[in-house]
Amino acid sequence: MKKKLRLAIAQINCTVGDLEGNAKKIGEYARKAEKLGADIVSFPELAVTGYPPEDLLLRPHFIDDNLDALKNIAKDIGDIAAVVGFVDRKGGEIYNAAAVIYKGKVKGVARKLFLPNYGVFDEKRYFNQGDEPAMFKFGEFVFGVNICEDIWQKNGPVRLQSLSGARLIININASPYHAGKIKEREGIIKSQAKDNGTAISYANLVGGQDELVFDGQSMVVDAAGKIAGRAQAFREDLLAVDIDIPTSKARLSKKIVNIAGKSSPKDRPILPKRDARPLEPIAEIYQALALGLKDYVRKNGFQKTVIGLSGGIDSALVAALAADALGSGNVTGIFMPSPFSSKASEDDAAALASNLKTELITIPIEQIFNSYLKALEPHFAGREKDIAEENLQARIRGNILMAFSNKFGWLLLTTGNKSEMSAGYATLYGDMAGGLAVIKDVPKTTVYKLARYRNSLGKAIPASCLTKEPTAELRPNQKDSDTLPPYDVLDPIIKAYVEEDKPFDKIISMGFDKATVGRVLGMVDNSEFKRRQSPPGIKITPRAFGRDRRMPITNKYAYR
Hints:
Layout: E1 2-11, H1 19-35, E2 40-42, H2 60-76, E3 81-90, E4 93-102, E5 105-111, E6 134-138, E7 141-147, H3 157-163, E8 168-173, H4 181-196, E9 199-204, E10 206-209, E11 212-215, E12 219-221, E13 227-230, E14 237-246, E15 257-260, H5 281-299, E16 305-309, H6 313-326, E17 331-335, H7 343-356, E18 359-362, H8 366-380, H9 387-408, E19 411-414, H10 418-423, E20 436-437, H11 444-457, H12 463-467, H13 487-499, H14 504-508, H15 514-526, H16 528-531
Parallel strand pairs: 1-2, 2-3, 6-15, 7-8, 8-9, 16-17, 16-19, 17-18, 19-20
Antiparallel strand pairs: 1-14, 3-4, 4-5, 6-7, 9-12, 10-11, 12-13
Helix pairs in contact: 1-2, 5-6, 5-11, 6-7, 6-11, 8-9, 13-15
């Protein structure tokens, strides 16, 4: 026999370490869900602490305070079962866990069984494994609770819980975003639901945390694998769905925590129709970058930002993202022409600032540059001008930008893309200086796609930025192609090597010239010391530099 159960998912934006703020938000959303007549509401993984708390987990007082926060949350939970992510402790061991709370009391705890230890995850550094899948009875319904990675195991907790009588699985997550990941998640959840004959409530975190962005896109899937409801992407949301769940008795002998012998009758308002469809791929990336930027700025106590505008496509995209995420009044662009800057670059910087309604300051650097050259002339005499003089200009600009950052408390946003960061086509303490590298994980070819997408929403980036040949303008008639292969050649090679770990011969077999592949791989390998000193950047690909890809700086192994 089937009966309707009203499930709610509170897709909230938590801040790591803000135990009081996170607890307050959990209480607020639990009350909203109760007003909607929900029987059960679930919150994201480690919602109490924020995710990932990293080495805060090594501080005993942090664990104590998290447990105190959970007690306060429990007091806020009324006639609704709430599944809340927190850090559990037994003796000296800690667990990534979910508390099931009802009418002011923690009725039971589910501990994460599978701890991811790849990519951005290193949960085995901190947590112990749970020992068995958790099962709960709520009135006539039996459901299982598991956490994030647990649901990715084909014959794991979901299978055991379904065999034990669960016809609903509540899975809570802090699953970071990368382009296309929603399709992977949907495939796993639909497959688990169909294979095990269980409905699945999938609650995901939303918001930015350092390099990571959590996209939300929580969902409820019925036992046939059909999506019954989906929360919005990149926004806080409260999803409520009515779903038919069979009343059930445990088929196998298993400890089941009884939450309530009988659920209270509820006055259920009619739920509004919702249609939160997945975003188009390029729109998804744009929103991920905007949210990551906004949360990095706000959560770290900044309000305004400063950007070095070159008249090029990269700085234009970063400025557009900042204006959209923070508001035009919180973005200042500084154009710093050198003797090699073109009038076209000046015009494009001015047009961009006008379109975005952001402040633009122009500070020529020729006089400062000449002062440097004069001071260095006795030491550089007899040598040709080269990259040393080029990088001086970038470092002068970096100093000016940091001066504004220091004087006014603005966060400096750097504008280098993944193609440049991979190949080392960037200047330490120059264009790499700053607090957040917004498009550090965005290949140059994707930069153009994002710029065109942004222009489809309204006038922003000058058309000439999209058509002129990329140049750093640090010497006469300089072009990026003087140093790098064309970006439509460079980016696929970087993707194959950096993101897919393909060896030299496999990349050549993709149709690329042997000499070009060797040159690109050499540039990537030799630039690790630069990347190690770069600001954090927002992850949007499956394998970003830093948290995902951790290579030694001193490294004599040639992967080719």
